Write a sequence for this structure.
C-alpha cells in the first residue's frame, strides 16, 4: 500500500515571535540556521562541539559517534563524566551555591526550598546510604515515591554512584510495580509510607508490600521507606528501613566517580499498544547533553527564571525537564506534590502567582481540563510573571492552544509545543521561542541537529502539504534510547525494522506544511480508514474541540459495511454547556466537522461522556475506546490506565 494519510484541516493563524523575546533569546533565527547548517555539513563535529562546551568531562572523549553496531549507536564512548556532578557540584562555585535548586510545595500548602549546596548535601548523604547497602555501579534501584524532594534526591544519588534508577510512577498499582521490579532485577526499592493526592492518601508502602510477596520473582532485599504521611504501615524486620534512620550518621562527603559516557543512567517503562511495557534504556553523557541543551533552547532558561514543569518524575518529562535538564542548566525548579485541582480548580494559578513562576510546562490534558472549568478560576490570579508556556504529551487542539495563549499567557507568551517521546530523551520538534512563529496545533520545526522526515509506506519522503505519513528521524542523536532493557530484538523490531534500519520510527503520523512545519496527526495505530481515506485522529478531534461547547474529544474507527470504517466520537462538554440538548449538539458537531474537514470525517455517532480513558500521564487511550465502541473485550495491557 502506498497510501498516505489525508489532511483536510487547515489552520492558518500565525503568531510571530515577539520581538522583545527574539532579542534576548539563547537562540534566534540566524543562530538556529547556523546550527542546522553545521549539523547538516558535519554532524559529528556539530555534536562534538556542543558536548565539549556544555558538559563537564572527567576524561574528554576523542570519538563522537560509534556506528559499528547500528542501530545500537554509541556516543562519546571513550569519554567519562558524572551526571550528578554536572547537575549539582558544577553549580557550587560562588553565589550560585546559594541559589534555590528546588522549591517544593506540598499538597497541604507547606513549602520547602533547597539551595544547590543543600541539594548537594542531601544527595551525598543518600548516595552514601546506597553505598552502605552495597549498591554497586550498574545495579538497578527502583523508585516508587510521591512527588517530593526526596524522589529527586534519590534519582541523583543513584546517578552519583552509577546505579541505574527506574522510577515507577506513584499512581501505579502493586501489579505494575511488581512487573517492573521483576524486569529490572532491582535489589533495592525506595518508597514512602504514603502519598498525598487530592486530599487522600495513596498507600504506597502497602502497594509495595503486595508487589514484594514471596511468590513473586523479584530480587529485592532492601526497602527504604520515606515517612511522608504518617500512615500506619508494616515494617518487615531485616528488609525495611526508614529513610531518616538510614541517612542518619552518613557522611555528607561522597565522591562522584568518573563513569563511562555510555554508562546506563536509567530505565523507564513505557507502554506499548500491545504486549508488556518496554523498559526504555538511556545512558549518561548523550542523554544529559540532550536534556540540557533542549531545556536551554526550548525554554530559553535564564538566571532568574522560576521554572515549573508539572510532570511527575515517574514520566520521561519529569526525568528530562524536572530533574536532569534544568538542574544541568543551574535553574530554579519548582515542584508540586499533589493533584492539579486540589483543593480548588485554581490551585495551579495560585502557585504561579505566589511563586512567581516564569516558565510553565504542562500537558494538553491539563489545559483542556482547566478550559472546561471556565476562565473565572484563572482570572482570580495575577499571572503576569509568566513569560513562556510549554506543552507536551499530545497534539494540542488549536482552540485549546488559543485558550492557553490568551487566558493563561495573557496573549504575550510564546507557546512551545514540544514533540518528543520517552525514547528520544528530549525535545525533537518544537517552535523555539526566539526562532519560530507559532501556528496553533503545530510543533513547528526540528531542533538543531535533528533531522526529521515524513515518509510513506515505502519509506519515501512525502512532499505534499496535505498528505501525512510516518514521522521518522533519519540521523542518530545523542539523547536517543540505547535499547529496550533485556530485549535487543524488540528495540530493532519496534523502532527500526519497518524501513530496514534506515530511520528511527516514532510510531506517530504527521504532515509538513508549505513552511516545513510539522503537524502531528496522532498515533499510526489510531489512523482511521473511511471509504479508503486514511484520517488521523488529531484533526477530527480538533474540529470538535473548536465548537464552543466542547472541552475535549476523542475519535475512533468502528467497522462499517459500506465505508469500511465509520467515525465514532466521544465528547466532553464544558461545565457551562453540560445541560445543552444532546440531539441539537450532535447535529451541530457533525455540521462543524463537515465544515472544517469535510463530509468524509463526519462522525456517525457521537457519545457525550464525563471522562475519557487516559493513561496516568494524561494521554487518551483510543484503543480502549475502540474496543468499547466495537463491543470487544479488552485484552490489551491496561496497567497505565488512570481509572
Ligand atoms: C514526552 C512524552 C510519546 C508520544 C508521542 C506522541 C505524543 C508527545 C506531543 C505528542 C503531539 C506533541 N506526543 N508530545 N503529540 N504533539 N507535542 O509524552 O513521551 O509518554 O513516551 O509519549 O506522545 O504520540 O509519540 P511519551
Amino acid at each position: 500500500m502506498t497510501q498516505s494519510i489525508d489532511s483536510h484541516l487547515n489552520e492558518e493563524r500565525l503568531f510571530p515571535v515577539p520581538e522583545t523575546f527574539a532579542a534576548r533569546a539563547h537562540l534566534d533565527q540566524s543562530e538556529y540556521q547556523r546550527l542546522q547548517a553545521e549539523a547538516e555539513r558535519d554532524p559529528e563535529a556539530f555534536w562534538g562541539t556542543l558536548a565539549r562546551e556544555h558538559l563537564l568531562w572527567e576524561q574528554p572523549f576523542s570519538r563522537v559517534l560509534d556506528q559499528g553496531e547500528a542501530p545500537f549507536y554509541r556516543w562519546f564512548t571513550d569519554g567519562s563524566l558524572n551526571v550528578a556532578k554536572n547537575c549539582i557540584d558544577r553549580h557550587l562555585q560562588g553565589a550560585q551555591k546559594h541559589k534555590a535548586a528546588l522549591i517544593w510545595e506540598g499538597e497541604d500548602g507547606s513549602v520547602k526550598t533547597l539551595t544547590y549546596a543543600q541539594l548537594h548535601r542531601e544527595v551525598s548523604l543518600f548516595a552514601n546510604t546506597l553505598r552502605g547497602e552495597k549498591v554497586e555501579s550498574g545495579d538497578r534501584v527502583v523508585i516508587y515515591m510521591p512527588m517530593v524532594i526526596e524522589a529527586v534526591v534519590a534519582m541523583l544519588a543513584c546517578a552519583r554512584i552509577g546505579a541505574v534508577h527506574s522510577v515507577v510512577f506513584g499512581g501505579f498499582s502493586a501489579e505494575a510495580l511488581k512487573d517492573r521490579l521483576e524486569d529490572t532485577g532491582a535489589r533495592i526499592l525506595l518508597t514512602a509510607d504514603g502519598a498525598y493526592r487530592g486530599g487522600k492518601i495513596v498507600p504506597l508502602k502497602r502497594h509495595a508490600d503486595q508487589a514484594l510477596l514471596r511468590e513473586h520473582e523479584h530480587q529485592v532485599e532492601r526497602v527504604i521507606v520515606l515517612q511522608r504521611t504518617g500512615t500506619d504501615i508494616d515494617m518487615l524486620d531485616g528488609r525495611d528501613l526508614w529513610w531518616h534512620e538510614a541517612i542518619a550518621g552518613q557522611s555528607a562527603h561522597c565522591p562522584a566517580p568518573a563513569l563511562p559516557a555510555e554508562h546506563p543512567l536509567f530505565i523507564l517503562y513505557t507502554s506499548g499498544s500491545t504486549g508488556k511495557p518496554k523498559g526504555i534504556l538511556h545512558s549518561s553523557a548523550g542523554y544529559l547533553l540532550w536534556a540540557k541543551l533542549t531545556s536551554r533552547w526550548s525554554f530559553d532558561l535564564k538566571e532568574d527564571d522560576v521554572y515549573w514543569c508539572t510532570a511527575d518524575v515517574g514520566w520521561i518529562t519529569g526525568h528530562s525537564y524536572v530533574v536532569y535538564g534544568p538542574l544541568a542548566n543551574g535553574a530554579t525548579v519548582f515542584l508540586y506534590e499533589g493533584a492539579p485541582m486540589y483543593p480548588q480548580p485554581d490551585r495551579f494559578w495560585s502557585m504561579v502567582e505566589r511563586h512567581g513562576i516564569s516558565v510553565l510546562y504542562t500537558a494538553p490534558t491539563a489545559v483542556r481540563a482547566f478550559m472546561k472549568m471556565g476562565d473565572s478560576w484563572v482570572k482570580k490570579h495575577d499571572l503576569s510573571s509568566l513569560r513562556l508556556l510549554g506543552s507536551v504529551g499530545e497534539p494540542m487542539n488549536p482552540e485549546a492552544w488559543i485558550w492557553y495563549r490568551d487566558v493563561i499567557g495573557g496573549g504575550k507568551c510564546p507557546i512551545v509545543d514540544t514533540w518528543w517521546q520517552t525514547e528520544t530523551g528530549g525535545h525533537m520538534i518544537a517552535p523555539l521561542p526566539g526562532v519560530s512563529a507559532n501556528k496553533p496545533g503545530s510543533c513547528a520545526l526540528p531542533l538543531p541537529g535533528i533531522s526529521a522526515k515524513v515518509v510513506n509506506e515505502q519509506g519515501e519522503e512525502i512532499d505534499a502539504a496535505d498528505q501525512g505519513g510516518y514521522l521518522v528521524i533519519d540521523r542518530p542523536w545523542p539523547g536517543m534510547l540505547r535499547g529496550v532493557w533485556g530485549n535487543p530484538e524488540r528495540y530493532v523490531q519496534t523502532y527500526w525494522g519497518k524501513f530496514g534500519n534506515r530511520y528511527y520510527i516514532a510510531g506517530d503520523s504527521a504532515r509538513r506544511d508549505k513552511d516545513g512545519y510539522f503537524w502531528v496527526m496522532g498515533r499510526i495505530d489510531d489512523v482511521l480508514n473511511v471509504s479508503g481515506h486514511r484520517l488521523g485522529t488529531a484533526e477530527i478531534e480538533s474540529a470538535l474541540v473548536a465548537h464552543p461547547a466542547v472541552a475535549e474529544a476523542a475519535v475512533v474507527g468502528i467497522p462499517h459495511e459500506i465505508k469500511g470504517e465509520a467515525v465514532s466520537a466521544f465528547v466532553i462538554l464544558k461545565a457551562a454547556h453540560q445541560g445543552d440538548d444532546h440531539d441539537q449538539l450532535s447535529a451541530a458537531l457533525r455540521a462543524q466537522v463537515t465544515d472544517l474537514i469535510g463530509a468524509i470525517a463526519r462522525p456517525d455517532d457521537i457519545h457525550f461522556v464525563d471522562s475519557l480513558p487516559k493513561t496516568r500521564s494524561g494521554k487518551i487511550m483510543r484503543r480502549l475506546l475502540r474496543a468499547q465502541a466495537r463491543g470487544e473485550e479488552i485484552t490489551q495491557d491496561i496497567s497505565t490506565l488512570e481509572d
